[in-house]
Amino acid sequence: MFRFLLLCQLFVFCKQEFIPTGHLQPLGSHRPPEGAIKSVELVPTPQEFYNEYVLKGQPVIFKGAAKLSPGFQLWSDSYLREKYGDVILRVDYGKKENRARPADNMALGEFLSIYNDSDRYLVDTLPEEMWPEFSLPSCLLCGGFTSRLQDAVLWYSSGGSKSFLHMDTVDNINCMISGVKHWFIVDLEHTKLIDMDHGEGDYCSVNVDKVDMFKYPSLQNLPWWSARLEQGDCMFIPYGWGHQVTSLFRNIAVNIWWTPLQRFNSTDCEVNLEKLGSSQAKLSNFKFTTGEQLRFMALQVIKDNGGSVSFETINPLIVGEHTGERLITQKRFAMLDKDQDGVLTEDDVMSVPADVVDEAFGQTPPGEVNIRGQSRHSDPEVTSLLASIGVQPAIVEEFMLRDDKTLEDYERFLSYFSDPTNDHSDLLHDEVRKFIEERINELTINRGQKKDSEHDHREL
Ligand SMILES: *[C@@H]1O[C@H](CO)[C@@H](O)[C@H](O)[C@H]1NC(C)=O
Ligand SMILES: *[C@@H]1O[C@H](CO)[C@@H](O)[C@H](O)[C@H]1NC(C)=O
């Protein structure tokens, strides 16, 4: 074996003999988990939660904590249809996450009539109408967490959905109203080593059903933790921990995101002790803010740059994830630079009110801000074509915006719209058809040339 290894260092082709464990297998096949995420029967007090889990960055499962939400009993399909059937929500295509596909909107009632037999996945902010039926876990009710709430997101599918391996720049509690979720979880330090090839969205586009260990060598020895979240459980996932989630059965989850809390406010717990009562926990009693998360992001850039940043440094770093637009202009920089000395420090950013931070980021939602200057890569020709002809049917946009389309993909797509037995041909804009035909031509010519050159090599 040893001699074989030595030989392999000399001959690159040996790599093919040396298949890493878990190659082309589902994520997590490369080695057993370090263990299961700790699980507790009682939700801790806010102070205990802060000391034991938030401060230490330690995930934990609160068994049965989601059962305290009224929605846990109420949210059958028929109840939801009757009460909220008209609410319009964002529904993704494909349970396997594909961030290049735009979602489209439909009424909850419509989603409910198709979701059991389709590949659609509802992912959107929990509609405000439903807030009285979801309760915050009691460990968040005082100490400062509730003034840093970012979002409550509803995840709804008939099971079988799979996320990308990704991380979030917020603290998170995920509560299972229905179904089960399996989690592949990576601690903060090891997450930093994962090749997040889509830095704009903090995710790794590895195929989680069939991991290519050569393309993603950072996954070959990655230690990981497992968690199984049962119906009625909630789990805390700290900021920066990588995770990949697989959902089973009729699956409804609500997760709460909040900006990491730097200092626990014990006075707040003394003053607001009565808030710990369950009727006070309803989400409708709280408000979401964006300024604190944006402040947190600005502080990170400052910290990463040794404690202070100039306009020239920060300007290219803070961009819109979708547009690449530089959000911190000279004028907005001045709004954050409290002492007007031309550099931003922690003191500057801490001393401006949250709504000013919001304004300085152009009111951009924190989820769409990237602090490493990365924005979504997309074909500029496609984007400008779509912009010039206006809104297209979702099926067309979804296809056009998807990365890495092959000749076969284009041909299949075009033949679908040319088939007289489905009357969709009118859905395809002439400009889009022309664009696809040109691409098919180019790809056919390229492929012909590639064949020729392969042929040449063989003759050599
Ligand atoms: C979908 O399937 C679940 C069981 O998996 C069932 O409880 C639910 O009523 C079904 N919904 C509809 C609208 O058929
Ligand atoms: C701590 O909480 C109290 C009571 O809610 C509040 O008045 C005070 O402003 C808070 N302190 C900080 C630093 O946020």
TrEMBL record:
Keywords from the named record: Calcium, Signal
Stretches assigned to the JmjC domain: 125-275
Pfam families in alphabetical order: Cupin_8 (PF13621)
Domain EF-hand: 324-359
Signal peptide positions (record): 1-16
SMART domains xrefs: JmjC
PROSITE patterns: EF_HAND_1 (PS00018), EF_HAND_2 (PS50222), JMJC (PS51184)
Superkingdom to which the source organism belongs: Eukaryota
PANTHER family listed in its UniProt record: HYPOXIA-INDUCIBLE FACTOR 1 ALPHA INHIBITOR-RELATED, JMJC DOMAIN-CONTAINING PROTEIN
Official protein name in the record: JmjC domain-containing protein
Organism: Porites lobata
